[in-house]
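WARN retry 2 of 3 for item q-0093 after timeout on previous attempt; input resubmitted unchanged.
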Amino acid sequence: MKKIIIALVAIAAGFLGYKMMAKDECPGGKAFETVAECQASGLTADVCSTSFKTAQEKSASFKPIESMEQCQLRYPHCEQKGPTAFVPSIHKVCIVAGKPAEPLYGTLGMNIAGGH
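OK item q-0093 returned
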């Protein structure tokens, strides 16, 4: 009986860990890497181009990070913005009906090397 309880706890912990790792990056909507991918999903060209433009504008107001190393500790891909500032690169754009598009910057992997 004790082994069964231990096995059930291990299964539950594994399932919970999986659910936490596989959380939806765009709740209630869909994330797209390109305008073409967005249009291929059935959304109109206007919706897709406007959404990508909105996400780019939001990303442009991102507070710069002082060094590439600090940026890469938080985001998988970074780019230089000015002589001494760095910002995360947009990985995808989240489009949810009735809401402004949001830039998605990606997440770091869960490995001991810091996800790089």
